[in-house]
Amino acid sequence: MTTVDVAGPARALAIGAHPDDIEFGCGATLAKWATAGCEVSLLVCTDGSKGTWDADADIAALIARRQSEQAEAARRLGAVGEVRFLGEIDGELEVTMALRGAMAKIIRELRPEVVLGHDPFKRWRLHPDHRAAGFLCMDAVVAARDPHFFGEHGIGHHRPAELLLFECEAPDHVERVGEAQIEAKVRALLAHESQFESTHRISAADDGAEAAAFRDRVVEKCRSAGRRAGLPYGEAFKRVERV
Ligand SMILES: [Zn+2]
């Protein structure tokens, strides 16, 4: 049974492995909630330092560029909360107690009603950071909600009402989105200009056709997610209630 639309949250936190993962996974949903007044915050686990095919790239410059692209993408989603970075090395994210604590502390500080993250159980997923980010997200929600975890944080525990996992193995929930939110998602994804060649498949010589094809792929994904619930467009999630 597929559910549609959680209660619109006042605060939401989306957690992604790399700059751009959040927009791919739940950008239209975040844009929808932001329009309704939700304080949307983003947490990116890694520094994006592997995100180029240029073997001679200036890595420090790439990291800085990807952080500013992420901030611009958040603006394009209408996210007025915070954009935070754990700053772990791209490709080397690990499920450690230290990172669980760091993530739980951010959840306790931002007090989101809904947390969104990667589904770590998606089978045959190639990228280890997506798996690690998913496990960290789930483990951090548990640590944030119970008072005897990480007492050294010195701040109150916080229990989110819902956890929504994107790019998921077994979707059972759809957030309804409209064309305006899909356009916001596309605009946010296009803020990640450093990823045009490697992820978006938009070459430097593009005359607009490749960018249009990219947009079409995003729209089609929202269309097929919406179909799960008989809606024109949506984004699909595994919903974890009773957090
Ligand atoms: Zn990624």
Please describe what this structure looks like.
- The chain has a single domain, classed as LmbE-like (Rossmann fold).
- The mean pLDDT is 96.
- An 8-stranded mixed β-sheet has the order 1-7-8-6-5-2-3-4, sandwiched between helices.
- It has 7 helices and 8 strands; from the N terminus they run E-E-H-E-H-E-H-E-H-E-E-H-H-H-E.
- The protein is α/β, with parallel strands linked by helices.
- Helix content is 42%, strand content 18%.
- Zinc ion (ZN) binds next to loops.
Topology:
Layout: E1 3-4, E2 11-16, H1 21-35, E3 39-46, H2 59-77, E4 83-88, H3 97-110, E5 114-118, H4 128-145, E6 162-166, E7 173-176, H5 179-189, H6 196-200, H7 209-227, E8 234-240
Parallel strand pairs: 1-7, 2-3, 2-5, 3-4, 5-6
Antiparallel strand pairs: 6-8, 7-8
Helix pairs in contact: 1-5, 2-5, 3-4
Please summarize what this structure is:
Helices cover 42% and strands 18% of the residues. It is of the alpha/beta class. The protein has an eight-stranded mixed sheet, sandwiched between helices.
What structural class should be given to the helix and strand makeup? alpha/beta
* Envelope shape: globular
State the strand order across the main sheet: 1-7-8-6-5-2-3-4
Count every helix, treating DSSP H or I runs of 4 or more residues as helices: 7
Mean pLDDT: 96
CATH topology: Rossmann fold
Radius of gyration: 17 Å
Q: Per DSSP, what share of the residues sits in E-state strands of 2 or more residues? A: 15-25%
The oligomeric state is single chain
For the record, what CATH class applies? Alpha Beta
Number of domains: 1
